[in-house]
Amino acid sequence: MIGLTALFHLPWNVKFLWGPFLDQYETKRTWILATEVALSVGLAALALVVGATPLLAAISLFVAVLAFLSATHDIAIDGYYLEALDESGQSAFVGYRAMAYKVASLVVGGPLLFAIGTVGWEVGLLIAAGIMVLLTAYHAAWLPRAEERRRPVGAALASRSGARVALFLAVLAAALVVAALVGPGVEGWGAALADGIRTLESSGVSLAGWIALLLLAVLVVAAGSLGRIRTRLAGRDSAYATAFVDFLAQRRVGLILAFIVTFRAGESFLVKMRWPFLRDDLGLTLSEYSIANGTLGVIASFVATFVGGHLIARDGLRRWIWPFVLAPNVLNLLYVVLAWLGPERTGFFALTVVIAVEQFGAGLGTAVFMVYLMRCCDPGHRAAHMAIVTALMSVSFTLAGVGSGFLAAELGFGPYFAFTFVATVPGMLLVFFLPHLDGREAPAPESGARRAGEKPVERGGSTL
User: In the structure, what pLDDT confidence band is assigned to residue 457 with cuts at 50, 70 and 90?
Assistant: First the structure.
């Protein structure tokens, strides 16, 4: 049953499905505040449910709703970030963005989890709800209004397509209730789901990985059929479909997709086997690793992301893309040197230096990668496009997870870490052909933005 909690990650894997909706209605600021209010209420309600009746079915329902709201909040934050800042600002603040995510993760995994272990789940969840209330109040008071309001959300519910979606959700909810009442119960359904997930994951690919691979396959097929898709959509007023078509209508979209998937391949292979190597071959203890990687390494990554973002904002993406692409990839070879030296000639200090330097390079890579992903998002569909590219980011981690252990066992750690550098070569070769390095390029003439008669926005000397 604990393994089935992986299902709660599904909203983040498929958030691109409702990303276009947030682009078409209200504003990103409104969506942020609305989801934060809903999350505050949901966390408080979950605390009451946990305290009153610890029924797994009820708790699972509340957590599933919270997961959907949180993924929607994620979409709204990405869209707002792109709306509120120009390209230079997006680059300059990418370090703060990465730091904020890490700090939030540390707060939840540290102080909040400690509080729950001390005072119980009910009080701990109420503390979480209180934190969300404070954040909501702060955002309501201080978040700038960065965009004009689009159509009210009520218009979606009144439309024919909105009515169909509402009917579908109502039927789905009714089916779930009936299944819970007349079916084999939570344990029976859980066992059936567990069997299905185990079947999918028997190849070593997680459930989230299968979804990411399916998304990649759909986008590749869609990119190859773009002409036919445009013909079928001609004359139709479908803002939802236009968001996906406009993403695929970018110049050299196939190269963009390939770069997104392959850029972090070497890092993914490295991260999967770094700890086993340091533990088994070099004798590093878990407490030593937590200091070297979890403390000094994280600080080095923070600093590098800040520095990288500010340098890109100052000099442009094209000026720094090669140094920041080479930094995380070439530094993988440091682990080849460690494997060659062995435990007799390496100590805690040397290992800490290598980890910190490698993490610094990874931070530079994060800065350049996130800035480039933002360049791939059309101004008319920022939330939808960011949801697509962030979902695709996980593909290389999935593929690395499948083969890393087998490769390391077959090759040995030294040759394996050399392979992690080789895995970076395809992504680096694609840099020569990437669009958007000098700014977001104007959409193709037949894209949705041009069909609607919109003009590209000039900002900071580059066409967005």
Answer: very low
**pLDDT above 60 for 418:** yes
Cα angle 314, 328, 281 (rounded to 5 degrees) comes to 155
Which backbone phi and psi does 238 adopt, to 5 degrees?
Answer: -125, 90
Tokens of 426: 């395809």
Q: Which two tokens stand for residue 366?
A: 């994060």
Q: Domains along the chain?
A: 7-204 (1.20.1250.20), 224-463 (1.20.1250.20)
Could you tell me what percentage of the chain is helix, strand and coil, using 3-state DSSP and rounding each to the nearest 5? 80, 0, 20
* Average pLDDT, integer, range 109-114: 80
Instruction: Answer whether 301's CB lies under 8 Å from 294's CB.
Output: no
Closest CA to 16 of 255, 211, 220: 211
Burial (CB count <10 Å: 0-12, 13-18, 19+), residue 222: middle
Going by the DSSP 8-state scheme, the letter that residue 442 receives in this structure is: P
CA distance 247 to 244: 5
Q: What stretches of 371-431 adopt beta strand conformation (E)?
A: none
Flag whether the pTM goes above 0.85: no
Q: How many residues does the chain have?
A: 464
Quote the DSSP letter at residue 111.
Answer: I
Bridge partner list, 462: 459
Q: How far apart are CA 259 and CA 427, in angstroms?
A: 5
pLDDT at 37: 96
Distances (CA, A) of 170 to 7, 50, 59, 164: 21, 26, 21, 10
- Is 154 buried (19+), middle (13-18) or exposed (0-12) by CB count in 10 A? exposed
Calpha distance 377→381 (Å, rounded)? 7
Helix (H) or strand (E) holding 463: strand 462-463
Q: Residue 460: pLDDT band by 50, 70, 90 thresholds?
A: very low
Q: How far apart are CA 46 and CA 55, in angstroms?
A: 11
Sorting pLDDT into bands at 50, 70 and 90, what band is 3? low
